[in-house]
Specification:
The complex is a heterotetramer, with two copies of chain A (332 residues) and two copies of chain B (336 residues). Chain A has 332 residues and is α/β, with parallel strands linked by helices. Chain A contains twelve helices and 14 strands. In chain A, helix 1 packs parallel to helix 7, helix 3 runs parallel beside helix 4 and helix 8 packs across helix 12. Chain B has 336 residues and is an alpha/beta fold. Chain B is built from eleven helices and eight strands. In chain B, helix 2 runs parallel beside helix 3. The model of chain B has no long low-confidence stretch (mean pLDDT 95). The chains are: A alpha/beta (332), B alpha/beta (336). At the A-D interface, helix 4, helix 6 and helix 10 of A face helix 4, helix 6 and helix 10 of D. Bound molecules: thiamine diphosphate (2 copies) and magnesium ion (2 copies).
């Protein structure tokens, strides 16, 4: 017997998660630019309907003041609220890094455990929609390098809903990354979906020759690469990390022990990216199990360009992931 | 239109007939270019995020006639009107918007990042508030040079609530920089009404907190806008420091092309469209004998032809080669 | 002392004798604690960055007597006076400053990061300006709760030039938050004189830009400070929104313990030290019969004993075990 | 014949570099909080004497407004000046990230090469002086992950002077990191020192058994570890990276080809740090040359604590680096 499901896209999935959390816990509040229905319920509609349903006090549109937005969320969280703050686009976290890094991330530690900051900071990003240099960056590596923060980046509607439920329930600050390109992706989601624990990856395709680890919308491209490889008789296992920090070492290690080969792929520029941490850790922990050098696939070391052909060349393509996998198979 | 500081009145500068005509030409250029842009996008010939400037034509037109080619401006994603008024060539602009290698930025910046130093168009930023700190730097360089050049920082009403606004106006004032801060108050910040996000009834009142002259002016009145800009720009040139100008105007369309503007007050919008500044100034020029109907029609036809030519030029140009993807991240080796 | 808004005068609240004595007790506590702190550091018994509050005793003393235990404050590295006035216990404070496990934060925060929720002392930040956005959040939670609690954000004159100040005052005003912004204007930001960094003669004038009442008050006059705080705190409690108070005061020492304060104007400093508010208020209390010389000496002796006891307690306490290094980064597993 | 030298500490070395650059090029200007002599010439004196010597126009103290500081530097640089901006402490870059990342780093690219931003952003940081959670972080990984920026972190007075000369002459934005703990380090510096090129590492100790790569003050600890190892008959080669981006792959590769073993050590938290990029790259490029897993040494994943014993435990110690080196020698 399979659970009853309902088709949702990622926007609807996150909206449902926040609505269910607000329904269950009166302390859950939402703030950000244009998030209330009078302001259209969010620029892409993630928070649409919430202010109408839960009232203008619990869902507040803000001025364009990201430091004030995150600061308000931190203060309310210290006093027991569960704010879900929207920073419209990931690049705009650059005007709020002090609040996020020096305060949200550190206050529990600096106070010796007295003040916790259970906030969720939602943001969208991603190339591919002609938003160019200042509206498309994936900066998850910055936040993953910051003790005190958790970082989540779902690729499916079900994960988006389940992980948002856990992020809101989590006692610590969570950076929740939504890929603009993926918002429209629809899939059936169990009607009674339970929270999906943070820190647990998901094997989205089983395989035996090479492991491909990814997250956010690039997982879709990793699966396309795996399909390509299958035609060549190469069996690729694809892991959706889902949570970037803390990342699920056990699931990744188990897969690499089996395949002996690893490719890590993400949208952010390759250099000093999340792929480096995973590669460095795996070679350190599973050195003798590795049959080939670990390959990383990411964007070239440049800004996101506007011109369509350059933007296409910027975004990681399935072919690049497949090539990296092939490379790990050559050298053994 | 109430003002925190009186600028109109006896010593208010009045544009001569020639200047009035030039202001109109720039207004017509901006209006026709905006219409052409929306048409091209609607037709699917180009895909881009487009922030209409329709309704805000007067502001940059009346400001820019007070500027020299070597004066510089910084503006925002909604800044093509500022760029055209400052003189960015239509062909280069359209080629950039079309992502072509012949564009101002080789197609790499796009509509949100137009830069054309030759016209004094230094920065188009996509980050709210960020035109101001950088305009200060341009102005600082003019001061260090000992020149009389001036920098203009354009931004919106919503941007007056972000930290960069505050830091920039304070620094410009204590350093007495030759910069003019132009807040184009179109009553909305994306979907948010002015009063929902802003704690003061006039942005210009914030100038008091920076010991700087501040003025609220009808940004849809070419004469009032010209006078306010003239005074502020001369103050900057004369080394007397910055000014905050709040130019009241209105956005005729949604925030970005394609957004349904249900969040906008239909009645308010209709009233502003009713007072469309472009046809209004056109009629005034004819009525006061500054120009004839024929003259203006010819001018408009010429603009239309230029725009058509620019679009053709843009769409006929090549896309940048893929090597451009990793070029200009750093200066070419050896450069300094 | 000029003010942008009149608060003194007929309806100015006046502290009763008991309250006057309590204000003095807190002032004496802060002064004696500051002297003890500098002595301990000079003697080498403790090593820490120390930001003397000597000269600024009146401000938190006259404010805090208007607060309840469940009202909350945010302050800055120069904030031990605010913390003591709000009621942070001396022993816990000294143990924290000494990096001991018995400290308010188990020794992990140190003098720049004192937190003691039980006293309503929520945040001590080392980042200029950052006390304000978070105080807004505390105030927002009170508003959501429907309570009459109030939040206080302390910061310096230099902090009034950073972006967080602007965003915070604007948001507090549009959201009508129960928060009071207290700018402790001690004339210097590290080594920089007020007028070198600040573009307006009174920080309180910036309140105009946020549609918020702003007042400049003599922060070294317990009666004036009490009246201003009383009015602003009641305004917040009554749901009438935020207030900006600029409390004029002076820093008797360099920015941080050990810096040579050559950059300070010796004459200016001497004049302020001459008017030291603590002995001045002490004399006034005796002269007006609020307290006797004997009473105050006893009170001071008691404070001295408490401070000595706290120092002994702190130095006698253990350092945190090394496991504390990685504890409290995240909540213990299972917590929510 | 050896060049004439002069003993300098790192504060004096950087001060001399800026002075020489200002002397040689009237376009070099300095701005930041308290940098002019009326304000004491900087909180630790790095800019002391410059305003007196070159005038108050070229050396300006600013309000506490980091966004305005970096913005002013960017605008002046676009018009041909060479601003050297001070952000007092690295944690304060969090209030200026938009100017640094969305603007300084991207303007050359987004303008198609029309507007370059030749600025130097100086900052100090480092644990060990009881500054606790918000004044001690090493955040170089963020900037190294940002295309368009260069990142420099010297460990000696000579390198500090030579690299600052190159940073000021560089056509692109340079993040220049100074370790507070190391300021007092004195050493002889050639009187006629020439600029030291960015992107070139330095082998500070030759060895044959294991390579230790580090930068900033941790290099001193790496050398101490090497001395310790020598007693055990282990010959460690120590490389001072000096420039973190672009980093000198050739020098590191050549050393690892020789030793077959690599340890990377830095002060920042290990996870998602610079060490990950170096380890990931080396295992990818020199997989077959590696005799053991690459080890990384960094701070534990936590905020910088105040309490002395915890702070001591936070900072990477020579013993940890030596242990990592020993580990690479066991597994072969
Ligand atoms: C720091 C930052 N926050 C949010 C945004 C998203 N955003 C883009 S335009 C805009 C509204 C700006 O309104 P206003 O300043 O009035 O300018 P207008 O668009 O009306 O010309 C917002 C919130 C942004 N670009 N940058
Ligand atoms: C964002 C930021 N920039 C710079 C500093 C360094 N700094 C610490 S205190 C200080 C001066 C603050 O002066 P003021 O606000 O007047 O407070 P005071 O120390 O006088 O009480 C500065 C610049 C900082 N802590 N945070
Ligand atoms: Mg607007
Ligand atoms: Mg001060």
């Amino acid at each position: 017997m399979t659970a009853e499901t309902k088709k949702l896209n990622i926007i609807q999935a996150i909206n449902e998660a926040i609505a269910e959390a607000m329904e269950a816990n009166p302390k859950v509040v939402v703030l950000g630019e244009d998030v209330a229905d009078k302001e259209g319920g969010g620029v892409v509609g993630v928070t649409r309907g919430l202010s109408t349903r839960f009232g203008d006090d619990r869902v507040r549109s803000t001025p364009i003041s990201e430091q004030a937005i995150v600061g308000a969320a931190i203060g309310a969280a210290i006093n027991g609220y569960r704010p879900v703050a929207e920073i419209m686009l990931m690049n705009f976290t650059t005007v709020a890094m002090d609040m996020i890094v020096n305060h949200a991330a550190k206050l529990r530690f600096m106070s010796g455990g007295q003040t916790g900051v259970p906030i969720v900071i939602r943001m969208m990003t991603g190339a591919g929609i002609a938003s160019a240099g200042q509206h498309s960056d994936f900066l998850e590596a910055w936040f993953a390098h910051t003790p005190g923060l958790k970082v989540v980046a779902p690729s499916t509607p079900e994960d988006a809903k389940g992980l948002m439920l856990s992020a809101i329930a989590d006692p610590d600050p969570v950076i929740f990354i939504e890929c603009s390109r993926a918002y429209g992706t629809t899939a059936p989601v169990p009607v009674d979906l339970k929270p999906i624990p943070l820190g647990k990856a998901k094997v989205v395709r089983e395989g035996s020759d090479v492991t491909i680890v990814s997250y956010s919308e690039i997982v879709v491209r990793a699966l396309a690469a795996a399909a390509e490889l299958e035609k060549e008789g190469v069996s690729a296992e694809v892991i959706d990390l889902r949570t970037i920090n803390p990342w699920d070492r056990e699931t990744v290690f188990a897969s690499v022990r089996k395949t002996g080969r690893l490719v890590v792929a993400h949208e952010a520029v390759k250099e000093f990216g999340v792929g480096a941490e995973i590669a460095a850790t795996v070679q350190e922990e599973l050195f003798s199990a590795l049959k080939a050098a670990i390959k990383r696939v990411g964007a070239p070391f440049t800004s996101v360009p506007f011109s369509r052909p350059l933007e296409e060349a910027f975004i990681v393509q399935p072919g690049q992931i497949a090539d990296a996998a092939r490379a790990t198979l050559k050298t053994n | 239109m109430s003002t925190t500081e009186q600028t109109s009145g006896i010593n208010a500068a009045v544009p001569d007939k020639e200047t009035q005509l030039e202001i109109y030409r720039r207004m017509a250029l901006i209006k026709q270019n905006d219409e052409a842009s929306r048409k091209v996008i609607r037709s699917g010939r180009l895909m881009m995020p487009y922030y209409s400037q329709r309704g805000q034509e007067v502001i940059p037109s009346a400001i820019s006639v007070n500027l020299n080619a070597d004066d510089q401006i910084c503006t925002i994603y909604r800044g093509i009107h500022d760029m055209l008024a400052k003189g960015v060539p239509l062909k280069d602009l359209w080629a950039e918007i079309a992502g072509r290698v012949t564009g101002t930025c080789k197609g790499k910046g796009g509509p949100m990042h137009i830069t054309h130093p030759a016209s004094g168009a230094i920065l188009t930023t996509g980050i709210v508030g960020s035109s101001m700190p950088i305009a200060n730097g341009l102005a600082w360089s003019f001061k260090l040079d000992g020149s009389r050049r001036v920098a203009i920082a354009n931004f919106g009403d919503g941007a007056s609530n972000i930290g960069a606004f505050h830091e920039s106006l304070n620094l410009a004032s204590v350093w007495k920089l030759p910069v003019v801060f132009v807040c184009q108050n179109n009553r909305y910040a994306e979907h948010t009404k002015y009063e929902v996000g802003t704690s003061v009834d006039q942005v210009s009142k914030r100038a008091i907190g920076y010991g700087m002259p501040g003025v609220t002016v009808d940004g849809n009145d070419p004469f009032a806008m010209y006078a306010a800009a003239h005074e502020a720009i001369n103050r900057a040139r004369d080394g007397e420091g910055p000014t905050l100008i709040e130019a009241m105007t209105f956005r005729f369309f949604g925030h970005v092309f394609g957004d349904d503007d249900a969040y906008m007050d239909a009645g308010e919008k209709a009233a502003w469209v009713e007072k469309d500044p472009v046809p209004a100034f056109r009629a005034k020029l004819i009525e006061t004998g500054v120009a004839s109907e024929e003259q203006l029609s010819a001018l408009e036809a010429d603009i239309a032809a230029q725009i058509e030519g620019a679009i053709e030029y843009a769409l006929g140009s090549d896309f940048p080669p893929v090597e451009e993807l990793t070029r200009d991240v750093y200066a070419e080796a050896g450069a300094a």
